[in-house]
Amino acid sequence: MHRLVLIRHGESEWNKANLFTGWTDVDLSEKGLQEAAEAGIALKDAGFQFEYAYTSFLKRAIKTLNIVLEKMDQLWIPVEKTWRLNEKHYGALQGFNKAEMTEKYGPEKIKQWRRSYDIRPESLSDDDERNPALDPKYRNIDDPQAKPHTEALCDTIARIVPYWENVIRPRVQTSGDIIIAAHGNSLRGIIKVLKNISDDDIIGLNLPTGIPYIFEFDDDMKLQKDYFLADEETVKKLMDAVANQGNRK
Prior knowledge:
Strand content: 5-15%
Structural class: alpha/beta
Radius of gyration: 17 Å
Order of helices and strands: EHHEHEHHHEHHEEH
Shape: globular
Helix content: 25-40%
Largest sheet: 6 strands, mixed
Strand order of the largest sheet: 3-2-4-1-5-6
Number of strands: 6
Distance between the termini: 44 Å
């Protein structure tokens, strides 16, 4: 059996403030630090022994992974960071309150920007300080996908799926336990592939912060089962909270 653990980073300071975050490199909140610690303890208690880890270029995911591995006494394992696991880029929305933007543009428009498959938020300008091309993390990367001015979910999926197929999937198939600490939308891209979810249905998946999501495969990488490492009631409550962020100031 081969096991893959997906974990969305713990609550960030901007999650707490209900701001569009995207590629903005914000830190974990106190709650987020606790969520990461609790996830590590739960994974240790469940007997996971990771051989390799993947995460994004953003500190909220990196710190979540480090805390999880520290709680498991597995900080020594190899970790690969990639911009392809970054969150969806929310363009000009980044840094603005979700509820306030809902009041300004209307709930339908914000829902499209947040959850549609192929509708992009308004784009950044080239000279906007939020432009990834001005960030040292991405300056030496030639791929234009690494410097988006905005993204729809389909764009996020387009950059993560080749990395899953060519890098992570072969590692899972030849290893034991693997963990990916990333973001709601980049993880949705992987889940879409793993569970063969349609373009229409994937937009309804809301991942809670800090809850490990386990996938078990046979030797041919056929999915045998998937489950959250938490009780159903807790997971549902947290998923509903994510879905309703546009209404919370």
